[in-house]
Amino acid sequence: CDNDLTFNMFNQLLGNPDLGGSWYNNNTLVSSNFDPVNNNPGIYSYIVPGSSSACPDDPAYLTVNVNSSPIVSLPNFNPLCDNDSPINLSMGIPSGGNYFINNNPNTIFTPSSSNIGSNLITYTYMNSYGCSDSTTQNIIVNESPYASASTSNVSCNGFSDGTAILNISNGNPPYNIDWGNINPMMLSAGSYGYTINDNNSCS
Q: Taking the CA of residue 187 as centre, how many other CA atoms within 13 Å lie in the half-sphere pointing to its CB?
């Protein structure tokens, strides 16, 4: 494959060839080390020089084929919040490869409080020649805000002097608090909902 490591062609010869020979490609002297990235495929000859006309040069031939490795890509991922829904990893090109999440094989990424921060996504693909390549991207998981309310009840039935003060932690301030059309400092008896969004749009 064109992304394989350099190898010594002498080690690919069969039998027990003598040392001291030279390598040629198209009658040009070349190194015994073949680099698939920079060297051309073709027929390489290893020639051990003879000692006389009665004992001429002895050649051996090695055919080197270099197959193309795939061009693999993986798009950028948008940041996630630790309470977002799982995402299916299926966007690698070409399709049909293998996904690894922090070096563990998996096709579903589930954001949670246990993977806050940067997570390494690796996509590996092998083509019909048996050549493979891989690429990586990161998925950032942001911590979501957490809130609890300190409340005071109404002073009398029918009054609207109850209060709710939020105690917010985690996430990334500043926070945007939405009570809808309710004033949390002028509450009547009942249940109320609110939404908190932090600076990472996590809620």
A: 19
53-62 contact pairs (CB < 8 A, 24+): 58/18, 60/13, 60/17, 60/21, 62/9, 62/12, 62/13
**12 three-class SS:** helix
| pLDDT surpassing 90 at residue 50 | no
| Other C-beta atoms lying within 10 Å of the C-beta of residue 34 | 22
What pLDDT digit, counting tens, does each position of 119-134 carry? 999 999 999 999 999 9
- With b for 16 or more beta-carbon neighbours within 10 A and e for fewer, the 152-188 pattern comes to eebeeeeeeebebeeeeebbeeeeeeeeeeeebeebe
Which residues does residue 143 pair with via DSSP β-bridges, in sequence order? none
Measuring CA to CA, which residue among 118, 155, 153 is closest to residue 137?
A: 118
